[in-house]
Amino acid sequence: MDLADLPPADHSRWAVPLRPAAPLVAALALWAYAVVHTDTSQLGDFGLVGALPAAFWIALALLTAGFWVCVRDPLRANRWSLAYTVGLIVMERATQALVYPTPLYSWAWKHDAVIEHLLTAGGLQRGDQLGDMAVYDQWPGFFAAQAALVRLTGVENAAMYMAWWPLVSSLLLLAPLLLIYRTFTQDRRLIWTAVWLFCVANWVGQDYFSPQSLALALYLGVIAIVLRRGRRLGRGRSRQALWTVLLIPLITAIVISHQLTPVMLVAALGGLCLTRRYRDWTLLITLLLVFLAWNLTASLPFLREAVPEMVSSFGDVSHNLETGYGSTPTGTGPVIVSWVSRLLSASVLLLALIGVLRRRVLRHRARPLLVLGSVPLVMLVANDYGSEMIFRVLLFMLPGACFFAAAALLPDVRPLAAEPGGHGAPQSVTGMRAVLPGVALLALTAAFVPSYSGKDRLSYFPPQEVALVRQVFDRAPEGSLVVAAHRNYPLAYASYWNVRHYWFLDDAKSHVEDILKDPAATLARDMATVEPPGRAYFLLTQGQIANSEMNGMLTGEQLRSIEKSVAASPLFEQVGRNSAGVIYELKRTAGTDSSTGRTP
User: Fold this and answer.
1) Which residues contact 189 (CB under 8 A, 6 or more apart)?
2) Rounded CA gap, 392 and 259, in Å?
3) What angle do CA 257, 258, 259 make, to 5 degrees?
4) How is residue 158 annotated by DSSP?
5) Phi, psi angle pair for 492, to nearest 5°
6) Closest by alpha carbon to 549, among 482, 492, 466, 485?
7) Integer Rg of the chain from CA
8) Would you give the distance in Å from CA 579 to the centre of its chain?
9) Number of CB atoms found within 10 A of residue 556's CB
10) d(CA 159, CA 328)
11) What are the pLDDT tens digits along the chain (600 aa)?
12) Pairing outcome for strands 500-503 and 481-484
């Protein structure tokens, strides 16, 4: 056969499907290279941002550009937008799990301690036994689920997988978000851009190993079902009652897992009841009944003590917006990171406002999303939620805000647009109308990194710090006391059911000043009340120093001077030290005055 007689090869059929994959594959390859070459042994004031190589930023820019080109193409299938979005979530949430050998966040370690207690003791203790740990006993849903997962998988403890929880919890949000946005538009550009913006704007860190992360996914699931069901007119009462019954397990899981999310859900469903199309009093009343039943029984001991403070803070918006002592960014890095995160949130909310004002048809059609994005603001009047209310309000505003922010970025939006290639499908836009929104999207995506991981210097605990703290609890008898500057260290709540903890930076400023004046004697006096066989330990780690410095409490020099005073005192002896910190034990001497901690 003469090869010249063969028809020319048709490569176009391969070029079309492979073209959108090229930026995605290249971005993930560059990201993998960046992860391998990231050195986290010496984190500075900019956290992980200062340790990431240039390849990471190139990968992020390439991924964002590929997504923007792909999502604007009316002929491109949804699977490519999904692939790019999952790629973004992986780059955002898996990087820390890969570059750090230990899990982040002292609060995640705290939650691991609660699960460990649940596994070993078979149950949690009551509020009068645990003080500030009572909240976990009275909202145990998340911890019971995790304890069951530990037993099911056979892992040693939850710490074996909790570093990957931000990735898992973020992926769990994709399905309900897509359902919510598809309720109000068939324009896939608007849907996927809104999802991308949500991933970028959700920097506040509530995706870590916590009840809030799971409760948020359940919250969005309930909202998605309510909105999708409300779109169908002519439903009978029997069908409405059936859906209410089916939603009860989700509602119950939210109520028994977290304190704030049920309140946000009540506000959201109440706001939706103000719109005629989504009015469902049966579901709202059911939620209130479940909420009250739990709060008047299982969580009553905690609420009995907390309600007076809630009442006193109600209506005090200025106080509820305060971040509190020890939450003031200090130093060049923390200040810049703080401003970047603020600008990121402000930019998304400003874009949302522009989208609401510019898209009249969309504003009318997606009014429930406008309601859902507004009702969380009511919570600023109610309580400060441990100086975190402003962050939680932002978190619950994002699903609605990101939808309208996406509408502002896109040159034209057709809420009823058909599927790609169909009648009424949006046409591809070129020129500056496509470039400028793409640049804005890239800037917002890049701003996520410092906002999310710019404080990793205080969130990351190296293996040496974990080993040092573990040494304390391995040797501490029941009834012992561990004194530290701050709770920002791993395993800070280990053995909390039989070992007491005291963090003096949480105390009144006057007492902190007393410690600075005479560290060894003051700390010995604080620690001398421990009864045998318990022992008293003073622990200082690099995580405590980083948190104190970066949040405007004591400087590293002041904390090290406290440690030097303890080291020079005959009342203490050093029992452990490595590159991450030091442990001292209060000596037991026959002549020690237990009321003063001094030797006569």
Assistant:
1) 71, 72, 410, 413, 426
2) 12
3) 140
4) G
5) -60, -25
6) 485
7) 27
8) 29
9) 13
10) 30
11) 444 444 454 444 434 444 778 899 999 999 999 999 999 988 888 999 999 999 999 999 999 999 998 888 766 667 889 999 999 999 999 999 999 999 999 889 999 988 988 888 877 666 555 566 767 778 889 999 999 999 998 888 898 999 999 999 999 999 999 999 999 888 888 999 999 999 999 998 788 999 999 999 999 999 999 888 765 544 556 667 777 888 899 999 999 998 889 999 999 999 888 887 777 788 889 899 999 998 888 777 777 666 666 655 555 555 444 544 446 777 888 899 999 999 999 999 999 999 999 888 888 888 889 999 888 888 777 666 666 778 888 999 999 999 999 999 987 766 654 444 444 445 455 556 668 888 999 999 999 999 999 999 989 999 999 999 999 988 888 889 999 999 899 988 888 888 888 899 888 888 889 899 999 999 999 898 888 889 999 999 999 999 999 888 888 899 999 999 999 999 999 999 999 999 999 987 633 444 444 333
12) parallel
Query: Position 36: which residue type?
Result: V
> DSSP letter string over 306-352?
HHHHHHHHTT-HHHHH---TT-S--SHHHHHHHHHHHHHHHHHHHHH
Tokens of 515: 């410690």
